[in-house]
User: Which sequence fits this backbone?
């Protein structure tokens, strides 16, 4: 690498905080410069002025970062503090209220023609307008309608206003000039392409009104969380072949709301490396994170991946496992995967540990939602009011065997069996709740708040009281699927699938289905989206269906042997 090329390497920390990453990068750059024959004191100044860039919205963090880099420079060059070195570190500021006198003075001191001056004033005005909420928007600010060459021209234009009269001072034009220059400096950082960009971005899905509106307008495909905005933005400001490094929550790898982000990365970039850490790797704060590197290239789809989710013991253990994998690529938690395979999986999850055989199953299999569509049921908006356990009410007011909405209404009963999901249980059971569905759910359907807004949400009512395969939407452990008798209303947290094929229930309760579900969505929320993505390769096998029916019978007998079952007859020991 030539000395010129070395000075062209630019690293940006896009939410630099107090500068930890920049301090570490300083030492890395120093090693590169020394290897090229530079003296430490010369290299220090070059690093500070050419290689390190940082942006921050918090003033105190910016000051700490600035101080840290200056002290780092002082470590290698004792005279650096006397050289008035200007760092490329900046704190965002909002555009000031600028009086007309400032623009008039710029026009007076302009060395350009009236036409060019007018153009430059209009460009400056548009630029300043974009900084009105810069301290909220920060590094995700998109600079519109301005190129680097035009920014150069603007800086020359502003620089022609050097001498201030007494009236200029009265109108505080020197202070305004300083702020405008700072905004131009920040703009240059935002318009620059970088060899490397790194950040531990803010994790924020509940934003202020201004920030939320800005993100939805400028980053509509990654608006779920602020960290996802940073991922896309940082990946887009790289030079060809440049790298962007991140530490973020790992939910973007799997959850549907980040599917467009995954598609963007897989299609346009290369995931160079990724480390999925153990859920509680940061002992001080349980934040499930991953660290990954994106390369601005489409030609290197095979990346290196580490799955450390099984190794508990904090960051010390995580570090040890990473170093072991670097030294020994045969480690069972180290994977090299072509990211194009992710597209073959519904939702494109970054499931790098998936086998070739399973990818093949996704390609040739039929999606679950092509066979059967999971339905979500009733949301009462007030379970304390509308739900009871069946033994809490007069049994004569309960209708246990309705077959339709009309049948339930004609029964003149108030309470009906209610599938609320419940704990882990396969094949049959969790039948202990009842719901007030009197007169076809009249009271629930007219349950409003103090503002007159309907609060309840009766969904898919045509499917009430029918046989189904059911499962709980939220589970912290293994998923479980059950046969549901006719005669029940079902909850919004208890998804129902209406199909008579018992082979499907066998597949859903199998270890194969469990493994695939964890690939599609390794969170506690099962939902309908991920179940619908399971690949079905149907086999006609009456033997399996008979086993399922037998399992249902055994589980049903077990449930009914308990006194809290409404079909309880007598204890199993009698």
Assistant:
């Amino acid at each position: 690498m030539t000395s010129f090329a070395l000075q062209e390497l630019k690293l940006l920390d896009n939410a630099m905080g107090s500068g930890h990453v920049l301090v570490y990068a300083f030492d890395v750059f120093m090693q590169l410069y020394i290897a090229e024959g530079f003296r430490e004191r010369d290299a220090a100044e070059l690093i500070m002025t050419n290689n390190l860039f940082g942006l921050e919205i918090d003033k105190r963090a910016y000051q700490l970062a600035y101080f840290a880099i200056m002290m780092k420079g002082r470590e290698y060059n004792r005279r650096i503090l006397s050289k008035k070195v200007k760092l490329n570190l900046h704190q965002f500021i909002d555009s000031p209220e600028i009086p007309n006198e400032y623009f008039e003075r710029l026009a007076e001191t302009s060395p350009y023609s009236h036409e060019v001056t007018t153009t430059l004033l209009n460009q400056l005005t548009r630029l300043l307008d974009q900084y009105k909420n810069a301290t909220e928007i920060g590094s995700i600010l998109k600079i519109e309608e301005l190129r680097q060459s035009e920014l150069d021209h603007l800086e020359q234009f502003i620089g022609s206003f050097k001498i201030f009269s007494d009236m200029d001072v009265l109108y505080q034009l020197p202070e305004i000039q300083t702020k405008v220059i700072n905004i131009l400096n920040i703009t240059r950082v935002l318009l620059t392409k970088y060899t490397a960009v790194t950040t531990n971005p803010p994790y924020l899905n509940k934003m202020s009104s201004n920030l939320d509106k800005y993100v939805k307008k400028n980053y509509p495909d990654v608006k779920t969380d602020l960290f996802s905005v940073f991922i896309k933005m940082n990946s887009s400001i790289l030079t060809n072949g440049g790298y962007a490094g991140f530490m973020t929550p790992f939910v973007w790898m799997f959850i549907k709301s980040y599917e467009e982000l995954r598609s963007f990365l897989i299609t346009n970039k290369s995931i160079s490396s990724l480390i999925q850490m153990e859920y509680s790797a940061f002992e001080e704060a349980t934040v499930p994170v991953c660290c990954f590197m994106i390369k601005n290239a489409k030609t290197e789809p095979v990346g290196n991946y580490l799955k450390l989710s099984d190794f508990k013991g904090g960051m010390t253990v995580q570090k040890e496992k990473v170093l072991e994998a670097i030294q020994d690529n045969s480690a069972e938690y180290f994977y090299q995967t072509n990211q194009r395979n992710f597209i073959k999986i519904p939702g494109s999850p970054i499931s790098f540990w998936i086998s070739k055989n399973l990818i093949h199953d996704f390609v040739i299999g039929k999606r679950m939602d092509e066979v059967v569509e999971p339905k979500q049921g009733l949301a009462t908006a007030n379970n304390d009011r509308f739900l009871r356990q069946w033994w809490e009410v007069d049994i004569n007011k309960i209708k246990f065997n309705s077959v339709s909405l009309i049948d339930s209404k004609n029964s003149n009963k108030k309470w009906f069996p209610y599938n609320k999901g419940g704990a882990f249980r396969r094949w049959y059971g969790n039948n202990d709740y009842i719901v007030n569905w009197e007169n076809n759910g009249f009271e629930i359907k007219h349950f409003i708040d103090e503002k007159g807004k309907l609060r309840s949400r009766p969904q898919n009512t045509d499917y009430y009281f029918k046989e189904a395969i059911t499962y709980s939407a939220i589970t912290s452990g293994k998923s479980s699927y059950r046969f549901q008798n006719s005669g029940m209303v079902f909850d919004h947290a208890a998804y129902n699938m209406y199909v008579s094929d018992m082979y499907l229930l066998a597949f859903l309760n199998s270890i194969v289905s469990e493994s695939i579900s964890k690939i599609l969505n390794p969170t506690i929320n099962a939902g309908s989206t991920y179940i619908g993505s399971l690949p079905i390769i149907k086999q006609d096998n009456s033997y399996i269906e008979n086993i399922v029916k037998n399992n249902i019978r055994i589980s049903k007998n077990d449930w009914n042997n308990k006194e809290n079952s409404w079909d309880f007859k007598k204890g199993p020991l009698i």
Notes: Residues 173-191 form the longest helix (19 residues).
